[in-house]
Design goal:
single chain; about 65% helix
Length: about 240
């Protein structure tokens, strides 16, 4: 049984910053989906991704005559709320960046590809004692990123992860894994070379989860050894 250490008020405050930011991001996603859905009802289809929805939001604010005035007026409150949320999320991001500057563990974690200030701060604040884990696999399992056993003939297969554990950290690492994959061609470090090799035979989403698992293991090594990316790759 792993006992949860008592958190200091400063540590709780850092985690609160992340929880508030996550709530704001969730609300922003809801508003974007609502805006996209309402506009689709009148034949204005936004392209995939947030940029498409924001383009239509800008058209409404600019008084685009292709969108009926009554529709623009009806959706204006959503757009104003969306702008306010973007401002608040930016404030949260700046606060987290300042927190990272004072946390040596978080700064080391940022040396890992795919781990930016938000993910580094969240991991450092959530894992107070990395020694509580027996090794990188147990840490990955704690995040719900350990693959279920699915092997035969001694050959390990990439399978679905358990999705049990810290959902927030798991999501951040999966987002980071996507960034690693999108920018893999411009780098030749071990992680991205490994990612490129997997992409030759595996689907994108499956590889992204495998990369997230690898990121968790590297993060564990960085925290355990007080090292930076590169020297931690052996983990």
């Amino acid at each position: 049984m792993r006992f949860v250490p008592i958190r200091s008020i400063d540590n709780q405050a850092v985690l609160m910053c992340h929880k508030v930011r996550e709530l704001l991001v969730s609300q922003r996603t809801q508003l974007i989906n609502a805006l996209r859905g309402h506009l689709a009802e009148v034949g204005d289809i936004a392209s995939q991704g947030p940029k498409g929805a924001y383009a239509l939001a800008a058209a409404i604010l600019e008084g685009d005559s292709s969108i009926p005035l009554c529709v623009r007026d009806a959706l204006a409150p959503i757009i104003r709320e969306l702008q306010a949320l973007n401002d608040e999320i930016a404030v949260s991001d700046r606060a987290i960046i300042e927190l990272v500057k004072t946390d040596a563990n978080a700064r080391r974690l940022m040396s890992v590809p795919g781990i930016g200030p938000v993910t580094a701060s969240a991991i450092a604040a959530s894992v107070q004692d990395v020694g509580a884990f027996s090794g990188p696999r147990e840490f990955a399992a704690f995040l719900g990123l350990a693959p279920r056993q699915n092997s035969s003939g001694g050959k390990e297969r990439l399978g679905r992860v358990s999705k049990m554990g810290n959902r927030y950290l798991r999501k951040l690492l999966v987002v980071g894994a996507h960034a690693v994959l999108f920018h893999r061609k411009a780098h030749q470090d071990g992680l991205r070379v490994w990612a490129a090799k997997l992409m030759e035979t595996k689907p994108f989403k499956l590889v992204a989860v495998a990369i997230a698992n690898k990121l968790a293991r590297i993060a564990f090594a960085v925290m355990r050894d007080g090292s930076i990316y590169g020297s931690a790759m052996a983990g």
